[in-house]
Amino acid sequence: MAKTTGAEITGQSAPIHITIPPPALSPPIPIPTPLAPNPDLSIDFPITTRLIPEQWTIALRNAGILEKYAHIPIGLSEGFLIGVENYTLSSTSTPPNHHIGETELGVARAKFADEIALGRLSPGFHPDDLQAKLGNF
User: Fold this and answer.
1) pLDDT (tens digit, 9 = 90+) per residue, 94-130?
2) Torsion of CA 70, 74, 80, 86, to 10 degrees
3) Model pTM?
4) Which branch of life, at top level (predicted)?
5) What DSSP designation does 85 have?
6) Would residue 18 count as lying in a domain?
7) Rg of the Cα trace of the chain?
């Protein structure tokens, strides 16, 4: 759709509005799906993602923004640095669940089971097992 500017050319007749044609549309860029099939959830470590770093590289390159966002496929492969690499925690603290969790436990478990089956959520870990594998968190 063409845009009309606020600029007018005035003369002896009625004002003339200048119309700017819309920019030409570029052809769509085919972007491969950057998701892998559901992972094998029987393996508890390492925690993995369905995002495929190589496909992200291709998609970012095709979009012409790989140089700006090159850290994304690297982070997917090697982990993202979040500025706390030189910190350690002296203890683990896990707050209790909200009180409504006990009354709606069946609903919550069903929703978590659905999300785990779809590969959108990692299975839960007992805090003691997780601390034994990760240290304090």
Assistant:
1) 888 777 777 788 888 899 899 888 877 878 788 888 8
2) -100
3) 0.42
4) Eukaryota
5) T
6) no
7) 26
